[in-house]
Amino acid sequence: MPPSSKRAGFTLVELLVTIAIIGVLIALLLPAVQSAREAARRCSCINNLRQVGLAMHQYNDAHKRLPPAKPPGKDRYASAFVWLLPYLDEASRYGEYDFTVRPSEEPNTAITEVSLEVFLCPSMTFVGGDVPPGAASYGVSTGSGYNRDPFNRYTGEPNLFCHNGAIIDPSRGKTSVSGISAADGASKTFLVGELDYGLTNLYERSHGAAGPGGSTQWAFAYPGVTWASVVGKFNSDRIVTKLYEWETFRGDHPGGVEMLFVDGSARLIPTETPHETLEALAHASDGELVEIP
């Protein structure tokens, strides 16, 4: 009688069960991997903001004021970030920058069309996929009002831009870390925050004045470019009211926006934060005590 032969291999049912188990394990693993990657990107974004905060403090120590929103004069438009270059290991770029002409003019274009890593959040995505020259992810806090309003809603005077934030137009005077600390508390006043390219309807609502998603570029001093406020819907992914959201802080991290405070600390501010709280955090001298969410 011949010896019995043992069956080798898998049956179809066993194979299907194995594939199903592997599929379930992959489905469970992918969210964990994505979450870990986002956590790493958030850490990198916060590190960028803290570097900018340290540069702001170094500038403040050297000049007894925070950097201006733009240089004095009508048509220059260099942003506060340009003034920070020597404190961000970019002294050579700063030395080559010509403050007598605009960022978009020679010889400045060789500098301003470069996207610097310290100004880019690794989570940021671009609507349409194209990365504009000199693109950035952050804007300085100009306050709680709309920078394009013809009149300042607080004084009734013609709007001179950047009227009540930590970074203001030089024609409005100057702000300093010590001054803000005495007025509102440096740990409770916005200094810089995310300003991404996530506005899905911006091109249509701005009638082509802005590219797809946003217009943030680190070298240009202008609303929605490096000036940001809390006038519109916070962390919106579309224009909702007029063009308010164009210059309102927004980011690509789940649940909120990474914000840098005047004291140099950085944290995620939840999307659902009440507007009154955001206004108090953006206003640098209202004297209002506010609890940070």
Q: Are there runs of 5+ residues with pLDDT below 50, and where?
A: none
Task: Give the integer mean of the pLDDT values.
Answer: 86
End-to-end Cα distance, whole Å, is 82 Å
Give, in spatial order, the strands making up the sheet with the most strands.
Answer: 3-1-2-4-5
**Count of helical segments?**
7
Q: In terms of structural class, how would the helical and strand content be classed?
A: alpha+beta
Radius of gyration: 24 Å
Please bin the fraction of helical residues: 25-40%
Which sequence of SSEs, written as H and E, runs from N to C?
HHHHEHEHEEEH
Largest sheet report: 5 strands, mixed
Number of domains: 1
Instruction: Name the shape in a single word.
Output: globular
- DSSP summary, beta strand count: 5
Give a written overview of the molecule.
By secondary structure, the protein is of the alpha+beta class. The chain has one domain (14-282). It is 29% helix and 9% strand. It contains seven helices and five strands. The protein has helices at residues 12-63, 80-84, 91-96, 109-112, 177-183, 202-205, 275-282; strands spanning 138-143, 190-194, 227-229, 256-261, 266-270. The chain has a five-stranded mixed β-sheet with strand order 3-1-2-4-5. The protein is globular, with a radius of gyration of 24 Å. The model has no long low-confidence stretch (mean pLDDT 86).
